[in-house]
Amino acid sequence: MGAYILRRLLLIIPTLLGIMIVNFVLTQFVPGGPIEQIIAQLEGEGDVFEGISGGGSETLGAGSDDNYVGSRGLPPEFIAQLEAEFGFDKPPLERFLSMIWNYMRFDFGESYFRSISVIDLVLEKMPVSITLGLWSTVIAYLVSIPLGIRKAVRDGSTFDTWTSALIIVAYAIPGFLFAILLLVLFAGGSYFQVFPLRGLTSDNWESMSLLGKIGDYFWHIALPVTASTISAFATLTLLTKNSFLDEIKKQYVVTARAKGLKESRVLYGHVFRNAMLIVIAGFPSVFIGVFFGGSLIIETIFSLDGLGRLGFEAAVARDYPVIFGTLFFFGLIGLVVGILSDLMYVFVDPRIDFESREA
Question: 141 lies in a domain?
Answer without folding.
Answer: yes
